[in-house]
Amino acid sequence: MIVRGQRFDLTNQRQIIDFEIAKPELIPEGALQLMTIPVDAQEHAISDWSLGDKIQGVSFLKKSSSLRLVIDTASISASIAALIVVIHTDKPGMIRVKLNRAGNIFVRVNNALFDLSEYTEGRALVAFSIYRRGSIWRFRAIGESFNTGLEALYSRYIIDRTDTP
């Protein structure tokens, strides 16, 4: 079991991380989203990235009761110090609901689980980050909830919202 604040090395160049969701059917169709924010060493969104941009080396897959994040660490630009991974229900034009409506949410990485259930009171949740330390990529369990949804994240990571998807 992974606990909040825990850090460990990622040994695979191609890292697969699953979000397991107990009751995704209780969230309006299409509202449950994953977002990855590429940040610099000061934890500000990198300057040449905008909301909705794809990040080389990062891909998402959606299954019935899970979301999968696949990260090829060798393909990530050297300008990116870390990837902040967010799960949220703040899709424009959708009913805004809290993440806890979906029941228990777990992150599975390297066959270990990080239980996010106690952090799902808001509409957005910084689940974890993957960051560079020298040539090694590391995982950090965060579990930080935002009741106001993505707005607080945009301010925190200094993200330009003019192109909000």
What labels describe this entry?
165 residues, five-stranded antiparallel β-sheet, 41% strand, globular, TerD, TerD domain-containing protein
Q: Can you offer a commentary on this structure?
A:
The chain is mostly beta strands. It has one helix spanning 150-156, and strands at residues 7-9, 14-21, 33-39, 58-62, 66-72, 82-88, 105-109, 112-115, 124-133, 136-146. The chain has 1 helix and 10 strands. It has a 5-stranded antiparallel β-sheet with strand order 1-10-9-6-3. Strands 4-5-2-7-8 form a 5-stranded antiparallel β-sheet, with no helix packed on it. It is globular, with a radius of gyration of 15 Å. It starts with 6 loop residues before the first strand and ends in a 9-residue tail after the last helix.
